[in-house]
Amino acid sequence: MKNVKGTINRVELIGWLGAVPEQRILPSGTTVCNFRIATKRLGGRDDDGNRGVETDWTPIETWERLAEQCGQSLRKGSRVRVIGSLITRSWQDRETGKQFSKTVVRADDVLFLDRYTLVEQNTASEETIPF
User: Fold this and answer.
1) In the predicted model, what is the mean pLDDT of residues 34-61?
2) Does some domain include residue 68?
3) Does 45 map to a domain?
4) Quick check: 36 and 57 in contact, CB under 8 A?
5) Pick from 72, 42, 70: which is nearest to 56 by CA?
6) How many domains does the chain have?
7) Is 119 strand, coil or helix?
8) Which of 43, 74, 100, 117 has the most C-beta neighbours closer than 10 Å?
9) Domain assignment of residue 65, yes or no
10) Looking at the whole model, is its pTM more than 0.85?
């Protein structure tokens, strides 16, 4: 194991899901659930000196029991608090040889911030996401 003293890899976000989570079971039997959340931040200043608000979309991945819970309980527009760490994967396209990379938050904890129950969720109509 490499020395990791003196470093911190922790991410904490509160935001809304932009789409229905994608849950799948790998050939090994492990469950994984992926979704993206929208968060807001202050952007740059315009000509009048006013700061705009910008939306960032962050990909989240969950594994095993947490993935099952997210797949069952979350929907488009759900508000969540995610705590995890950044994971970057790199790969090379087999046909072109071009290098790609993707950074995601691997969630250790997802707190469901909506107040409705799973039964209400299953009967809820599509809502506008508040961002």
Assistant:
1) 92
2) yes
3) yes
4) yes
5) 42
6) 1
7) helix
8) 74
9) yes
10) no
